[in-house]
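Quick question, first post here. What does this chain look like in 3D?
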Amino acid sequence: MATIHRRPDTLAVGVLLAVVGGFLDAYTFIRHTVFANLQSGNVLLFCVEATARHWHRAVLLLIPIAAFCIGVLLVEVLGLSRVERVLRRPLRLVLTLQITLLTAIAALPDDAPEQITTVTVSFVAALQFSTFTTLRGIPYTTLAESGNLQKGLAAAHQWLTHKQPEAAHRAAQYTAIITGFVGGAVLGAVLTRVLGPPAVAVAAALLATVLALVIRETRRLQRRQAAPPRQPGP
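> Answer (accepted):
Ran it through. Tokens below.
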């Protein structure tokens, strides 16, 4: 599988992305009573509406699903070696695209069609879901917490039963990601009720912080690689 992000995420980046994931779920649910991050709910609703022969509603649900699929495929294309030779920093491009799209949603009027928001968030979520998948060597997701919760509990059980220090470390990492998601959901719920549509600009600002951290980490690694090797002492 092609990937545009081969370096594991730092814990700070992972927590910030989890905050964004929780924020966007709360934002779309409060505004439109939908979860636009992942598509399990939309697929289920499509089946319900289609079996009830509510064809118009069913077709509308296909739009965010299609947007999510396009986002996933875009990340795959950006991960191709021939594309990476042209776009040297595809990860930065993805983050910049996410920031731009969320900022555009924040500028929409209150009466903008619901589909604009849900489709855009679905696309943004697909980019994040497909790009950020590894946290310091462990798999994780920043958009849904069932997998993180299962892996975190399994690691905690291994630590308690076998006293494995690495298991305790994994459990702590998953706990931090889950806490970030919950905190983001609370923040998104509060700010969406207070600010309305412009609240999503906070998620864009968080992604801008992630972009700054990624750039800083890249430069740090480049300086380390460029530094001359230390000479052994006498």
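The mean pLDDT is 90.
The radius of gyration is 20 Å.
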